[in-house]
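Quarterly update from the structural biology core.
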Amino acid sequence: METATTGGTLAPREETITMRDGVKIGVGIYAPSGAGKFPALLAASPYRYDNNVLPASPQFLWRETGPIEFYVARGYAYVHMDVRGSGKSGGEFEFLGPNEQQDLYEVIEWIAKQPWSNGKVGGIGQSYYCMTQWLMGAMAPPSLACLGAHDGLNDPYRQSCYQGGIPGEFFGGYWWTQNRIINRFPANGATPHEQVTDLGMLLARHPIYDEFWRSRSAWERLENIKIPVYSIAVWGKFDLHTRGNLDAYRKVQGPKKLRVSGAPNAWAAAQEFSSVEFHEKVLLPFYDHYLKGKETEYSKRPPVEYFVRGANVFRVADSWPPAGIKYETLHLQAGPSESVTSLNDGSLAPAAGKGAAATSYRYPNPGWVSGVVGFGPAGPAGGFDPVRRVLTFTSAPLDRDREVTGSIKLVLYVSSTRTDTDVFVKLAEQFPQSPEDRAKGANPGSLLVTKGWLRASHRALDPARSTEMEPYHTHTNPEPIVPGQVYKLEISLEPTAYRFKQGNRVRLEIVNGDSPATDVIWTHLYQPNKIGEDTIHHSAQHPSAIVLPLSNAD
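Predicted structure, tokenized:
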């Protein structure tokens, strides 16, 4: 089988595959020249395979196929599938829905029957390509041999569209706008695809975790995956994908390994996955082992390799989270910490119940100019100040390094003047500041470590799925809160591995929204009806506290 080359870029052979309901699915097949039976890598997305002529760069974040030519040169057929309702595929786009899932199954089995196929198919790709891999694995088609699952969520409700029950903008807004542009204006200028799905409205019609979401949640079926899985997470994608890869590693039942990269954001993650060096070192040995039967370096790798931000090292472990984790509890107190300018300047300390018993704030704050973010002391000329107009609780300078590894939990006692409220939590490392800058009111430098979210009406826990450090919310039957009554909220912050340095401080930020100035494309719309006053209670009777997992490397 031969694949043509145009301008130094492989051009696919195009095929159309008819599904059980008559819908035709388009695929581009890139394959080695000459006769032979090759293992196949399947990449499935709504991003159009005919856009692969564009460079795989951070400008085109949806170009998350990995280096196609690299794999073809090493004896793999690479099949890029336009999912239903996108590119050169018919039907209506349904965002990971049942028809899209069944299409994946049928395309895998179609590939295995082709004369150029050795009968083995592996999954490949980042982000949406990884999301479809979890669904492929959960359906267990006979010819699917392995998953190279890089950076992809598997519970779209909890991990993006309704984090903590709060509607997120990413998929229904930014992502869908980009996807429709990609489909309307393909790189070759031919066959535009107008997608009629109103994804924003479709998601808005399902604000609770109902059958719409259950049918799209591979998380519910990860135990069905019995084939080899290499789950590769990225710490810098905790707004979207990271928990999906960590959860999948723990839940899948076949041979498995976990790697967590230190790429700090989505752009760096895209660069990493498009690089030949990454695939040569990390993924090719995995595919060669399971799709070609070769003895490779992959079999010698430890079960878990994870990067520690702040320490800038990779560590190895036999499990995730690693063994030997100890827990440190820091209680919210009235403060002041005298280290930061915020709505309250509260403190974090080992003991509970000192100072005032509660901290209140009213919203929307008149100083917010972009979401919940305001300007610094110099006004617009000084730029945005992420913490000046939110609540903060900050520790004393650390007496030693602390390496936080695993799941983080915040227990928060809250009351409100409203019948519902949202809680947005950020954990950050705050750096030292000169007395001169502190006197001027400028805020110290900091680095965001991780986040968490919860809508108070979605506080109900599933006791069968919750653990001591990972509260799992049902999101099935929201229950309003009674104004003035205190409620205990258990909030799971996104897992991490991060070393806080001696002399720096641990800072917790709490408010009822976020901002495009600080959260870029991962924001949640601030609703006009969010008007009121919330109170965080932090007394001996209501001991609000954050629980940090400390590794034995600490």
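The CA atoms of residues 39 and 120 lie 5 Å apart.
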